[in-house]
Structures
1.
Amino acid sequence: MLPPASRVEEVLALAASVAFRIQVHLRIGEFQRLGIMKDHFDTVDEARFLCSVCNKEAGHIQLLRGPSSAELRRNSFTSSFSSAVSHEHFDKLRRAIADHDARAF
């Protein structure tokens, strides 16, 4: 006896999803190997800043470093922002984050 058509469709959809994920994973590996994808960034330091009115989180700053570049990311309740960080500004920003010096940004 054959399984119901709906079950066959479920199995085919699952197989297609798995095949797609394998293709994506292989493409990402190929892009990374060829240097097409952006650097992978690791968080070096981060700080959270509280709202002076409600005392809830108002912003989150992250300093990230990749193999060939660095980046500053800021997320707040109003927006998100990211910017490349030059080598000469990296240590200054790292100290500002460690000191929770919001004005330095």
2.
Amino acid sequence: MAIRVSSGVDDKIEAGHSLTSAAPSIARLHGVTAVHVGQHVPGSVETAEARLRPSASSTTFDFVILIEGIGVNELENVMNEVIWMIPTASLGSHEAGVPSRLSTGIERLTFA
């Protein structure tokens, strides 16, 4: 599962710490095997993912949370819980469902 986060704040270090604090709780969910939080650094480096999926490289975001699991069904079953676990201080309200600054999706690995 990949969750792209547009934090909308200037203090990227604090936003990163806030997102990272959710990782242990997410990792304890049934079917989750690993959680990774990374900060997006804009640049002109062409990646294999950008070549395979050009639409993925056009999205603007500050952080990405990658969640690995034992299966697609397990990840789909915990997606809503994961979204609610992500700290919302700098991400907007959850009142209307998924905050507008989160982009979620379950992606299957493709090796080329």
3.
Amino acid sequence: MEIMVSKVTLGTGKVVYLKEPTVEDMEKATQIAGKVAGDNPGQMGVMLQKELLKRSLVQIDEKKLSMSEKEGVNNFFSLREYSQIMKVLRDISGIDDSMGNCQVENVTFTAN
């Protein structure tokens, strides 16, 4: 099965392949992060990012990753690399561009 991915060359030269996250990926990442973070909103944000990355990560350099290998995502990246990847992930998922290219206008609507 072929999927469309983004090839990201980090400042360190490491090449990372990311698939665009889906709504389902976001839902599952939120469920997992919520269980781990509990009532801590700071930890929730960090865990949500990490879980979404695990669901989007396809390959690092020449190594395709299994889901169990993705659990060790902390072992693959320095903090600098992680920050770069998260910027790209937010960009390809549209998280930083909340309105995207959609158009919003006010219209009069008559309800039945």
4.
Amino acid sequence: MELKSLSDNISILIDEVMCLRKAVTQLEMSQVQHCRDAVFRALSSPNQIWVTSAEISKYADLDIHIVKKVIDEYSDEIVEHSRVSELGLPLFTTRERYHNEVSFQDKLIGAFVYRAI
């Protein structure tokens, strides 16, 4: 009888662990989405087309390492400029903004110098 009771308790605990894992996964996904959204809001700032990861970090109120991770993970949606900032930092914008707002001359230079197009 005790063995059956122990087995039932283990089964209940396994179910609870599975529910907790699912909740943690959903929380992590929510956090990832929040960070992505914050980075893209910073990249969409009307003040300037090209921004550094440090500027994104400040605007989005995110750690610089998180910003860099988002930039890496969403590289298909984020463009890195062929030039760097005055401080030598890489410059970024969204691919949509790049296509809509960057001059043809800059696109042409980017095509030869870097992977911008």
